[in-house]
């Protein structure tokens, strides 16, 4: 199996997407892979942020910065301790690089 792969998992923080993340961690992610969480967020009428991200894409937020409540709020991300715990654990156990996209 090829090392240093990029693996993306779409997540909206629903129970189904958390199960998909857990499945990917258990069955796909290997040592030294990079895991990208692709944050899927329903439209909330915030056109200014949507307009900015439509041309540049959403920012990559490193795992180490997801613990900062101001940063989470700034980017309109949902803080979810369960998801953060799963990603934090896999990053330590399998030396996986895990930014949020």
Notes on the structure:
With 101 residues, the chain is an alpha+beta fold. Helix content is 42%, strand content 12%. It contains 4 helices and 2 strands. The chain has helices at 15-27, 47-56, 69-74, 81-93, and strands at 6-11, 34-39. A two-stranded parallel ribbon has the order 1-2. The longest helix is centred in the N-terminal third of the chain and has 13 residues, at 15-27. The radius of gyration is 14 Å and the shape is globular. The two termini are 25 Å apart. The mean pLDDT is 77. Residues 5-63 form the UspA domain. This is UspA domain-containing protein. It comes from Rhododendron griersonianum. InterPro entries: Rossmann-like_a/b/a_fold, UspA.
Oligomeric form of this entry? Answer: single chain
Provide mean pLDDT, rounded.
Answer: 77
Question: Structural class, judged by helices and strands?
Answer: alpha+beta
Rg, alpha carbons: 14 Å
Number of strands: 2
For the record, give the distance between the C-alpha atoms at the N and C termini, rounded to a whole number: 25 Å
The amount of beta strand, in percent, is 5-15%
What low-confidence regions span 5 or more consecutive residues with pLDDT below 50?
none
Helix percent band: 40-55%
Which shape, going by the Cα principal axes?
globular
Q: How are strands sequenced across the largest beta sheet?
A: 1-2
Largest sheet: 2 strands, parallel
InterPro entries: Rossmann-like_a/b/a_fold, UspA
Organism: Rhododendron griersonianum
Pfam families: Usp
Domain UspA: 5-63
């Amino acid at each position: 199996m090829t090392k240093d792969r990029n693996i993306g998992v779409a997540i909206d923080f629903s129970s189904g997407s958390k199960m998909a993340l857990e499945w990917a961690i258990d069955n796909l992610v290997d040592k030294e892979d990079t895991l990208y969480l692709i944050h899927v967020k329903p439209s909330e009428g915030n056109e200014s942020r949507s307009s900015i991200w439509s041309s540049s894409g959403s920012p990559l937020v490193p795992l180490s910065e997801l613990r900062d409540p101001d940063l989470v709020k700034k980017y309109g991300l949902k803080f979810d301790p369960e998801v953060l715990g799963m990603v934090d654990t896999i990053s330590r156990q399998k030396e996986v690089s895990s930014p949020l996209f």
